[in-house]
Write a structure and sequence with these properties.
Layout lengths: L5 H7 L3 H16 L14 H22 L11 H21 L1 E5 L14 E5 L5 E4 L2 E5 L11 E5 L9 E8 L4 E5 L2 E4 L2 E2 L1 E8 L8 E8 L2 E7 L19 E3 L3 E5 L4 E5 L9 H4 L2 E2 L3 E9 L1
Antiparallel strand pairs: 1-2, 2-17, 3-4, 5-6, 5-17, 6-15, 7-8, 7-14, 8-9, 10-11, 11-12, 13-14, 15-16
Helix pairs in contact: 1-2, 1-3
Length: 295
């Protein structure tokens, strides 16, 4: 029981104080994925700590159960109570993840330097109309939270992407905006977004330094990186909905964003599979907005 959910074994053994203490500890460990926590020794993470704690708690509860006196058991140790508590815990956890916040891990360096592969973020789900349970989408509705240029969104892959993945990128264009990407510089409604060069940036692979640029979208300032050895448009764009809203050449593109859609780019501009190649993101694909970064 404790290997499934730590407090259950103590409740079964009639040790409600131990169950309460273990429940608080489990809650704190669960919240740790949403908070900055001290760095653990190399090769360890919170999941390892939970596993060790689960084994220790299981052995402790087993000993407590063997020492429990015979006779009438406390009401909270009955099978019905334990099942009810388990259901409530699962429902509470699902409610938080499906309607409030979820943890998410960057799968690639497409958003470097803001995020590198393996970096964890907290994603706000409420207000974005994306409802799932156990990875299955239950439904969507029009987002009620404002979406601004510069926001980092987590979203379901659009139809033009062959793999069914979840992506994380920055919003650069809203419905009705005119996008121009010319010689690796982005213009929104004829306004420049690049401010100035910002030194060099070295990814973890350490192969060669990349050019870092300082940008601003509305009130959000951020850095992008460019690889001088790669072209502005690295591959032929796919056939995507509203493809006729865009025109391409070897060095630039022009797009007008249709209603109900958004334009997203990775900050690692020359190593990002983004709207330049798969087109516009429908509002119904938005999972949520990054509200906290946990490096």
């Amino acid at each position: 029981m404790n290997l499934f959910f730590m407090p259950l074994g103590f409740l079964y053994a009639g040790r409600w104080r131990a169950a309460l203490g273990m429940g608080v500890l489990v809650l704190l460990l669960g919240l740790s994925i949403y908070l900055d926590v001290p760095t653990l020794p190399a090769g360890l993470d919170i999941s390892h700590l939970r596993l060790v704690l689960g084994v220790v708690a299981a052995l402790w509860a087993y000993r407590a159960a063997r020492q429990a006196p015979e006779g009438i058991r406390p009401w909270y140790s009955s099978a019905a109570s334990l099942i009810g508590i388990s259901v409530l815990v699962v429902l509470a956890d699902s409610g938080v993840r499906n309607f409030l916040y979820i943890p998410f891990k960057a799968a690639s360096d497409a958003m470097a330097p803001a995020l590198q592969a393996g970096d964890k973020v907290v994603v706000q789900k409420y207000g974005y109309g994306h409802y799932t349970i156990l990875g299955t989408r239950l439904g969507t509705q029009t987002p009620t939270e404002p979406i601004r240029r510069g926001d980092i969104l987590v979203f379901d892959a659009p139809a033009a992407v062959p793999k069914d993945n979840i992506y994380l990128m920055r919003v650069v264009g809203l419905p009705g905006d005119r996008i121009v990407y010319r010689n690796k510089e982005l213009f929104i409604n004829d306004q420049r977004t690049r401010l100035r060069p910002d030194g060099e940036y070295l990814l973890d692979d350490g192969l060669r330094p990349l050019q870092r640029m300082r940008n601003q979208l509305d009130g959000t300032a951020f850095s992008t990186i460019e690889d001088p050895n790669k072209p502005a448009i690295k591959e032929k764009p796919r056939d995507f909905p509203f493809r006729d809203h865009c025109s391409y050449s070897e060095t630039e593109l022009h797009c007008e964003i249709p209603p109900g859609h958004y334009y997203l780019l990775g900050d690692n501009r020359d190593n990002s599979n983004d709207s330049r190649y798969w087109g516009f993101l429908p509002a119904s694909h938005i999972v949520g907005k990054v509200v906290k970064t946990l490096h």
